[in-house]
# Entry
Amino acid sequence: MSYERLEQCPICGKEEFKNFLVVTDNAVSKESFVIVECENCTFKFTNPRPDQGSIGQYYESEDYISHSNTKTGIINRAYHVVRSITTKQKVELINRHSPAKGAVLDYGCGTGVFLSACKKDGWEVRGIEPNGRAREEAAKETGESIAQNLEEIAGEKFEVITLWHVLEHIHTINETLEELIKLLQEEGTLIIAVPNADSHDAQQYKADWAAYDVPRHLYHFTQPTMKRLLKRHKMKLQEVLPMKFDAYYVSMLSEKHKEGKTKMLSSVVNGYKSNSYAEKNGNDYSSLIFVAKRK
# Structure
């Protein structure tokens, strides 16, 4: 196992951090990891963290649904029901921001469910997925070749590039964003969905908040820090949208972390509270979608 420590904030480049929270990896290793907060820009990130050569073993779990498509257990069954709804919403979103259907790239496409829906809707689809098992599933799901990395699609151009709960996993965050933006058409759209560390459920569950998901989640965004990151890459924010189902799903996982078992009633109540709070307090939902274009 190899770890690396960031000496500079990935967003502002400053070198002064303070410890924010110690969180346990409940999904795989049961190890504890420190989340630090930049004293200049407030960006939170896992530090130290497994390096790129070591992080793979932290995804080796049947419970990691983005890679396995498992339907075992009540939480995973709920995930699949909700996914059918949110996939339709995602396709509607890209259609709204790019009425002339062209090519869409899903970076970190998992098992390819979103890309399959885009293809059925008339889009040309491209996917990148580093995990071998998920990549095979995505190829079967879409009937298309799925790339392992950006080098395999160099020179291609896209009307829309999406990262659905992916950016928080990427070690080379600035370099990857820079390369992705180069692949956008001149009027192309970049769509990034991430958990929101300023949400009510994050504040309620604290170290048990499932969306910290250390060490797989290397970064822990808020609206201000995501806006700073987009500005750094000369992207103009178009809109910020809620992912309301995430409050319930994350609360289910968080209750399991906290209590050792799934507590459905508490999960539903806390998910509802989180969404109600966000509606009244600056759109701080459990997860957010950021839609941006080049300035």
